[in-house]
Design goal:
Layout (H helix, E strand, L loop, with lengths): L2 H42 L1 H9 L6 H17 L1 H15 L1 H19 L5 H4 L2 H31 L5 H29 L2 H8 L1 H5 L1 H13 L5 H4 L13 H35 L5 H29 L1 H24 L5 H19 L2 H7 L6 H17 L2 H12 L4 H19 L32
Helix pairs in contact: 1-5, 1-7, 1-8, 1-11, 1-13, 2-3, 3-7, 3-18, 3-19, 4-5, 4-7, 4-18, 5-7, 5-11, 7-8, 7-18, 8-14, 8-17, 13-14, 13-16, 13-18, 13-19, 13-20, 14-15, 14-16, 15-16, 15-20, 17-18
């Protein structure tokens, strides 16, 4: 074979590898978009859902919203179960078939919410049916994150896992933006009576075509090369018992709990907070979340790319420290009636951007903490446990704290406290903070350019 032929063959193989990587990112990302679109819509329309499903059960608007957020939180507590169930299957039989099942369950559950009878029609069965569908969503969402991140990071070129993994978080932002945009458009184009009567159903039904696109992408998906070739940490000479994996999961939860708490507080809970505490109307509250989500989206990919150069933890630590320091001042800007709309928009955009510093490197950091044979299960459990406690309960905790204490700063204190703990774990947890990370499946083999050995956690 001549040089030109050899180069052509190599270019062809490289093109196919790039095409597989791009499809893997698209297939993983679109499922996350569907998931977070629905979770965003539920959060943005929480006051409407409270009126349609929970208010007739007795009590005022605040009590109904607490019940709505309780159903929201319950779904999050089924995420770890979904992560364990789908993660175990995905680590054993491959990413592709399980990801197809996950997106099917997620899409069906979301679309069915848009078809549910309300309390006025079905009585006490209505909130239970809504909660049951939220449980199915929680199961599917628990499996989605681990599988999508494992797929994207395992398909990434060397030295680009931070960027590829960041697409998961970026599509979270896109999903939240889509949810905010659709919810805002629905609330703007319809009268309040139309929104309460039938308009709230439309955003949930829109998940059906989105899910069909995700299903099409995943049906034609190849397995990631490292999984298809049978590379596991046993092949790399690694082993680890259940106790070791459990300790790594707990460390991972500590690292990302600030991301979970601050992300949901600033990006999902904010509309209801603005309505109940600051007495904004539903349209003003929804519009206020757009700058926050835009700031979040803009920061994610640069943060992931930066983490490929300087390491995951320094970037995430910066975000956690910034939230700890700025959460209260930023929230007080929103509370001040004398602050202009432009300044308030900039404040919410800044809040979203600092969360993006954690969300960009976060997926790759989690993936690199676990060997291939338990990667989906391990990172899925860590993420879902963190979300169950610190995201799913954010609305419930914040709403109850404001109601019981009368302190309007409760959301900021909650986000700042969680980020302070994350900062401690990121700074003083296992491994060195200022170093870059190794390749998955190569954590205990080879040396980097400076001759240092990689550690078992995938950090150098």
């Amino acid at each position: 074979m001549g040089y030109a032929e050899g180069r052509g063959a190599g270019d062809g193989a490289g093109s196919r590898a790039r095409a597989r990587a791009v499809r893997a990112v698209a297939a993983g990302s679109v499922g996350n978009l569907v998931e977070w679109y629905e979770f965003g819509v539920y959060g943005f329309l929480a006051t409407v859902l409270a009126d349609r499903f929970f208010t007739p059960a007795g009590g005022g608007a605040v009590e109904a919203l607490v019940r709505t957020y309780a159903a929201f939180a319950l779904a999050f507590f089924f995420r770890p179960l979904g992560a364990a169930l789908f993660g175990t299957l995905g680590d054993r039989i491959g990413r592709r078939p399980v990801l197809i099942g996950v997106i099917t369950l997620m899409t069906a559950s979301t679309a069915l919410i848009g078809m549910l009878p309300t309390y006025a029609t079905a009585g006490a069965a209505a909130p239970w049916l809504l909660t049951l569908l939220r449980v199915f969503q929680g199961l599917s969402a628990g499996g989605e994150f681990g599988g999508a991140v494992a797929l994207m990071t395992e398909s990434a070129p060397p030295g680009r896992r931070g960027l590829y993994g960041a697409w998961q978080s970026f599509t979270v932002a896109l999903g939240l933006l889509a949810g905010a945009g659709v919810a805002t458009a629905t609330a703007t184009l319809l009268t309040p009576a139309q929104l309460a009567d039938w308009g709230w159903r439309l955003p949930f039904l829109l998940a059906l075509p989105l899910g069909l696109v995700a299903l099409w992408l995943r049906v034609g998906l190849d397995e990631a090369p490292r999984v298809r070739d049978g590379r596991s940490d046993r092949a790399d000479g690694r082993s680890g018992g259940t106790g070791v994996v459990a300790r790594v999961v707990l460390t991972a939860v500590g690292r990302v709990m600030g991301w979970s708490a601050a992300g949901y507080t600033f990006l999902v809970v904010l509309p209801s907070y603005l309505q109940l505490t600051l007495h904004a109307d539903v349209r003003q509250a929804l519009l206020a979340t757009v700058p926050a989500t835009l700031g979040f989206a803009v920061a994610i990919l640069p943060a992931g790319l930066l983490s490929d150069r300087v390491g995951r933890r320094p970037v995430m630590l910066t975000g956690a420290l910034l939230v700890t320091a700025l959460a209260v001042p930023l929230l007080r800007l929103l509370q001040d009636h004398g602050t202009s709309a432009a300044v308030k928009g900039a404040a919410t955009a800044a809040a979203g951007a600092v969360v993006g510093l954690m969300a960009g490197p976060g997926p790759a950091l989690l993936a690199e903490m676990f060997p291939a044979r338990v990667r989906w299960t391990g990172l899925g459990l860590a993420y879902s446990l963190s979300n169950a406690v610190f995201s799913g309960c954010a609305g419930l905790i914040v709403t109850e704290a404001v109601r019981r204490t009368g302190n309007a700063d409760a959301p900021a204190y909650y986000a700042a406290a969680a980020c302070a703990v994350s900062a401690l774990v990121l700074a003083w947890g296992p491994g060195r903070t200022g170093t870059r990370v190794g390749e998955p499946g190569e954590e205990t083999r080879g040396e980097d350019r400076s001759g240092e050995r990689r550690t078992g956690s995938g950090e150098r």
